[in-house]
Please model this.
Amino acid sequence: MSDQPSKADSPVAFKYLRWLLALLGVPLLFGLGYWQLQRAEQKQIWLDQQAVEPMTRAATALRQLERQAWVPVRLEVELLPYRIFLLDNRTLNGRVGYEVIVPMRVDEGSFWLASLGWVEAPSHRDRLPALQLEQQRIQVDGMLAHPTGSMTLADLPAEVGWPRRIQSVDLEQIRQALEMEVEAVMLHLKTPMSDQITPRSAMHQGVSPQRHQGYAVQWFALAITLLLWLFWAARHGRRQGDGK
Model:
């Protein structure tokens, strides 16, 4: 007896393949299209919010942050870079590095976290960037946001010493390490603090809203093409069945 599939099995397998594509492939392609449209909308909102006149009072900016994701600000702050966090696995133009995060004091009041930007990582993993930062009071421009956690591949043990490498923005761990209370906000500075650090404003901002929309059209087109092919294949299969 031969182990080869019979000719009768082939149409059945093809039928199951069509059902699989109809139930999984089509919804997936449409889902990717809608996701790209959402990304385009989010990116456009982010760009629009950057163009708004910056707020100059911390309390007003915090209230505004309750209604929108990003708030442009121009504030007088005191940077406290004696305890530097290096958020791991940040890339810029294909280069591996860290996001530099330090505590700061705002309007001689509460403490926030400030993201100074991106710094390139040394070639050896066991080394950290040697940053030259001074405690200073300065007026800065930036975008205020809620801190977002970073995806980690594993739960790594907390490091010690300063600067300190971290795998995600865990506010509780940061508060314990700083031994102070910090607000649940992150100020992404546009003002450069060091020649070593590339601030957010100088970074590549990623895909434009128009390109996200273009990707959405491509996913939708693939979904419609698959639907048309499934419809044709189903009719073709029925005709072959009727012709027997």
